[in-house]
Amino acid sequence: MKARRSFKTLTMSLALATGAALMTALPASSATTAPANAQPLPSAVQTHASGPKFQLTSSNQKAAADKLLADHLTTRANLSDVLTNQQFPNSAGVTEDWMKLREMRSCAGKERGALPPDPINKVVDWCWQKSHGDDVTTDWFPQGMSTTGTADGADGQIQGRSAVAVAWHYENKPKQNEPVGTGCQTHNLLKLSFIDRETKKYRHVLLAEPTVSGTDSNFKFVTGHGGGIVWYGNYIYVTDTIRGLRVFDINKMAKVDSYGEGVSTYGVNGGKSSACGYGYVLPQVHFYSQPSCTSGTGDRTVAPTEPICHSWLSLDKTSGKPYKLVSGEYHMGPGGRVVRYQLNDFGAATHPGLLNLSGNKTVVEDAYTLSGYTNVQGGMTWSEGTAPLNFALQKSCSNVPNVFAKTWVGDTRATRTTGCTGAPLTPGGPRVQKGNWSAGTVEALSHWPKRHIDGANVEVNELWGLTEGVCTGTPTPKTDEPFDVCTGESGSPRLSLRAIYAVGFGDPLVQGLH
């Protein structure tokens, strides 16, 4: 067996949107020969990237967004407005607790099961505010996450703020003999939460797609799962799982006219704008579309010619320009795919900050199949010279500990793919725990390389993640799985397994997981 290379820290030069050079530390891979119990295929293999299955068609909506702002959304807003304006009264002037800034809190007690396990050091261990139910609501579920650390690796700030963005989708699937949700209760309605890293204050903002009919401008809400987002400069990329990728511009954020807990309208009506009660909207400026996908929605073999389902996103700057927007596919069986699109930096002559195009089609850098992993709901890639491409992946396991894996193309080590729990070692005994990570269904991974601290840009090299879970008490957890965090929970009150965490990306306790 070859000697394993240590998990040293690799320092790489990344070109930033500003054109400045940044030295960012990312963990190096470890090359080993296959163990005796290795799986038959490598955990990740490169696949053909050509053809329409990964290509997206570009549609620019900037002009429509600008007209909407000029015609109706004339009160512009920035991150400071959203994250510091307490906004106690609603638009009618009535003080409303629902409109106040909310605040993340430290997770406590059994909630900490939603964090990476001890002794891994948690730099951040946030749970959502209890009032208004953000921590346990089953109407809204947090999904994708990205940060200003990803958006600007030089100092980790955008518009002078260090912030985190989280996408939520509204859960309103039609039930038997119940009406389908409409309007502001439409299934998969999307919003973002912006969280100030320093104060932990946050506010929800509705995503808006501009529309133009003749000379009239308006906007409609956006729907989708929101499973992946990437913040890059002033743009926030959001997955539309079956249809492609949407792009929103925080430089075009605006305040609406009517807002408050009782407001249930959206768009412009009678000359007044509203956004399902929220005070701010974030307009869409670009859409990369594709034919609808189905491969990421079931436990079956992925058709190799079928369009990819965009379940999660991350950003890779480690191999130089053009950067790589990484989109991964959730799949219940092995074979979920990962595609990396060429992403222009903000100094590019064409399409600055947007995906590289050829003939109005996105340019694919490369693509991979995750032969050794199932149920991946968060991942990222990074390069180190000529070594195989590295992957960090999260496998979701609901309320039992999930799986975090650091792997690389061609890695033949055995993986934890056969399930999150194993058969009892003795008849009638407890099942074997296979997870090595947080419980509560993992949803996203994001890298934060540097922070602006005390006037200096400091390398922090943090790995951020998010979980979405809630213990509702139904169904009752299996008694033979004592490591199910929901075991013993009645559902009244509900236990939150909904957390945001950050750990050291170079921590050997993290990089040694597989």
Brief sketch in words of this structure:
The protein has 514 residues and is mainly beta. It has one domain (43-175, 182-410, 430-511).
3D architecture notes:
Helix content is 5%, strand content 39%. The model is unreliable at 1-24 and 30-38 (pLDDT under 50). With 514 residues, the protein is mainly β. The protein is built from 4 helices and 36 strands. The strands form 9 sheets. Strands 4, 5, 6, 9, 10, 11, 12, 13, 14, 15, 16, 17 and 20 form a 13-stranded mixed sheet that branches. Strands 3-26-23-22-21 form a 5-stranded antiparallel sheet, with no helix packed on it. A hairpin with a 2-residue loop joins strand 18 (266-269) and strand 19. It has helices at 62-71, 79-84, 148-151, 508-511; strands at 9-15, 21-27, 45-47, 57-60, 75-76, 102-103, 105-106, 122-127, 140-147, 163-170, 190-196, 201-213, 216-221, 229-232, 235-240, 244-249, 254-255, 266-269, 272-275, 280-289, 312-316, 323-328, 336-343, 357-358, 361-362, 364-370, 376-382, 390-395, 403-408, 421-422, 432-433, 442-453, 456-467, 469-471, 495-497, 499-504. The chain has one domain (43-175, 182-410, 430-511). The radius of gyration is 22 Å and the shape is globular.
The DSSP helix count reads 4
**Per the principal axes of the C-alpha atoms, what is the gross shape?**
globular
User: Helical residue percent?
Assistant: under 10%
Supply Rg: 22 Å
Strand content: 35-45%
Structural class: mainly beta
Give the distance, in angstroms, between the N- and C-terminal Cα atoms: 18 Å
Count structural domains. Answer: 1
What is the arithmetic mean of pLDDT?
Answer: 87
Number of strands: 36
Unreliable parts = 1-24, 30-38
Largest sheet: 13 strands, mixed
